[in-house]
Amino acid sequence: MWKCLALIVLALSFSPSQGDPSQQPIWLLSVQGAIGPAIADYIDRGIGSAKDDQAQLVIIQMDTPGGLDKSMRHIIQAILASEIPVATFVAPSGARAASAGTYILYASHIAAMAPGTNLGAATPVQIGAPSLPNPAKPDKPNQPPPEKTDKDSAPEPATTMERKVINDAAAYIQSLAELRGRNVEWAIAAVRSAKSLSAQQAVNNNVIDLMANDLDDLISQLDGFTLTINNREITLATADAELVQHQPDWRNQFLAVITDPSVAYILLLVGIYGLIFEFSNPGTGLPGILGGISLLIAFYALQVLPISYTGLALILLGLGLMIAEALSPSFGIFGFGGVAAFAIGSVMLMDTDLPAFQIAFPIILGVTAASAALMIFLLGMVWRSRHARVVTGLDTLIGTITTVESIYHDQPTVWVHGERWSVQCNEVLTTGDTVRITGTTGLTLNTEKVTPP
User: Fold this and answer.
1) Cis upstream peptide for 146 (omega within 30°)
2) Are 277 and 293 in the same domain?
3) Of 393, 388, 390, 387, whose CA–CA distance to 440 is shortest?
């Protein structure tokens, strides 16, 4: 038994986590495109998997124009909580770490960039959008124009809410810069004035730690690099370390698809229309199942996306009005009001200015046009049904010309549409007289005598 324990202790002493650091792998995570829920989940789970694999370093190779604030903070929290070093590398040449990418770069234990890359422009997009120009004030006579200063390049927030957003973002990136010992002043300027830097300028201004031509050059430069995590000094041994490229799994790929705003929008509509069809034709089954699944997936996607609940309410109101038009026609008032509410709500649904998280306008236009076409089709059916010739009921007998077949107990009778009817007339009728049916009284037909030509 003692020999077994000794072998276990000996095996643990030679494990990669406690032995030669060069035996511990390096994990590579690749980020391309806007930062969203799928990328945040990919990086968070990737860092966790790297820890389970006893990796010595995680490299995030990044090329992003920015992204959602919630997803960015999710990634930063995962980096700050990581027990293994995380190096963010802006590459290849021509890539960028704009907006949210700048925050992630500042939060990383090691910040690196390839030549020909840039970072910055970290102003929240809602604040950075152009505003309406203020009316020009008349110049006083003989007064020279005011001189421009550096502060004039940074637009002042116009509202209290904008000031709160700017101050919160500036304080956040300042705390990250202080934590990693990087340039605080430029970090604040990147938020307040949307400043940007090239890779070489970033190195010269202590914004990043180093420049590397490519991934191999970065790994070579990090060999022997020393840093401190949780009061624990770590020295990297990357020269002979294995590089593990961690690809997104099916969960990340599925999340990336459903969190596309256009896909989430289509799933929402498929779900609603599927349930409507199932409720209008109970027992069909398939539309209800597909509708329920689509609606639940759409709700999951929308709860991780920045949506406007006013826009969602307008979409639901529009669908409700269109359903009301189909069930109780109102000559288009409900129908076209529903189409208008639906179109406005679709445009307002995504509460962000980021192009990557907007619903494609052709999709909105196509769905709205299809809904309008459906309303026109239903209104056409209603109009035709109101002006069509009656083909059932007693009203179909009106105008029919027939002949008196017999007189039974002083009651003339006729044969119409395969049935024998009693008739009454203001004139005396005899067998063989020709009459035209003008109306009904109970089960008796009202007639008028027709004189043969």
Assistant:
1) no
2) yes
3) 393
Number of domains in the chain: 4
* CB of 109 closer than 8 Å to CB of 86: yes
> Can you tell me the distance from the alpha carbon of 94 to that of 88, in angstroms, rounded to the nearest whole number?
16
Q: Which pLDDT does position 450 carry in this prediction?
A: 85
358 and 421 share a domain? Answer: no
Contacts of 342 (CB under 8 A, 6+ apart): 314, 315, 318, 319, 322, 367, 368, 371
Helix, strand, coil abundance in the chain, percent, nearest 5: 50, 20, 35
| Whole-number Å distance between alpha carbons of 404 and 375 | 49
- Average pLDDT of 270-281? 81
Looking at the fold, whether 270 and 404 belong to one and the same domain comes out as: no
**Alpha-carbon distance values, 419 to 394, 397, 414, 443 (Å):** 12, 11, 8, 12
Q: What is the pTM of this model?
A: 0.71
The whole domain housing 115 covers 19-129+157-249
